[in-house]
């Protein structure tokens, strides 16, 4: 697995955004689409900001981009400010020229009995679009990628999961208290993520240093979903100095 360490998150985000822009442009030149797997959270914000800047200042078009987000909280509708639908529109989609019909996120509002079919349809749509070219990831302090908490092995696909207590407490400030944080979510599985042709995981700050070390240098294990990326043939970690401090 490749590990790239940058002075700042902005430097890392710029490097990744340039790579994504090159991929988008080379596919556009061939008249082809590109399928991106996208992530939410604080981590990808400088990356999305750079993509928006490239769209506005350099004319980078997203007209040939199809996206699939990793996950969505159960019970939050699209208008909820903590929903990932809202987050993605606020931070990226509202500022670029993505076609609305090319934007895909799991829905948090599907009736309980319809969730398995909703998840199966999400997996099928990824396949129908030709699979994910590049999956963007953050990492949670539990080692989760998407919401694949400890106990998620590399056979898991899109499904409903319970959120780890640490994940919910990390989200508590945004929800004004842990009691308001959903207890379940729908997430792509580890196998879904491993199916992407390329994976780029970003992590910043000293709070991520310990789990970054486990993911990169620890054993590949069910307790740290990100450790499965060691088995991916085209995965890289983009870190700032603080997140790389324990390596
Ligand atoms: P963060 O979350 O980017 O807000 O740190 C990362 C994650 O939980 O995957």
List the helices and strands and how they pair.
Blueprint: E1 2-6, H1 9-29, E2 34-38, H2 45-58, E3 65-69, E4 71-73, H3 84-91, E5 103-104, H4 115-128, E6 134-137, E7 159-162, H5 165-171, E8 184-187, H6 190-194, E9 198-203, H7 209-217, E10 235-240
Parallel strand pairs: 1-10, 2-3, 2-6, 3-5, 6-9, 9-10
Antiparallel strand pairs: 4-8, 7-8
Helix pairs in contact: 1-2
The chain binds 2-phosphoglycolic acid.
Residues 41-43, 138-140, 144 line the site of 2-phosphoglycolic acid.
List keywords for this structure.
3-stranded antiparallel beta sheet, 7-stranded parallel beta sheet, single chain, binds 2-phosphoglycolic acid, 247 residues, alpha/beta, 32% helix, globular, Rossmann fold
Proportion of β residues? 15-25%
Number of domains: 1
Principal-axis shape equals: globular
| SSE pattern, N- to C-terminal | EHEHEEHEHEEHEHEHE
How is the largest sheet built, in terms of strand order? 1-10-9-6-2-3-5
Total helix count?
7
Share in helix: 25-40%
**Largest sheet, described in full?**
7 strands, parallel
Give the names of the bound compounds.
2-phosphoglycolic acid
* CATH topology title: Rossmann fold
What Rg do the Cα atoms give?
17 Å
Mean pLDDT: 98
What is the CATH top level name?
Alpha Beta
Question: Span between N and C termini?
Answer: 13 Å
Please mark out the parts with pLDDT under 50 across 5 or more consecutive residues, or reply none: none
Structure characterization notes:
The chain is an alpha/beta fold and 247 residues long. The protein has a single domain (2-240), classed as Rossmann fold (3-Layer(aba) Sandwich), CATH 3.40.50. Helices cover 32% and strands 18% of the residues. The protein is built from 7 helices and 10 strands. The strands form 2 sheets. Strands 1-10-9-6-2-3-5 form a 7-stranded parallel sheet, covered by helices on one side. The longest helix has 21 residues, at 9-29. It is globular and about 45 Å long. The two termini are 13 Å apart. The relative contact order is 0.18. The model has no long low-confidence stretch (mean pLDDT 98). The protein binds 2-phosphoglycolic acid. The site of 2-phosphoglycolic acid has 7 residues, from loops. 2-phosphoglycolic acid is lined by residues 41-43, 138-140, 144.
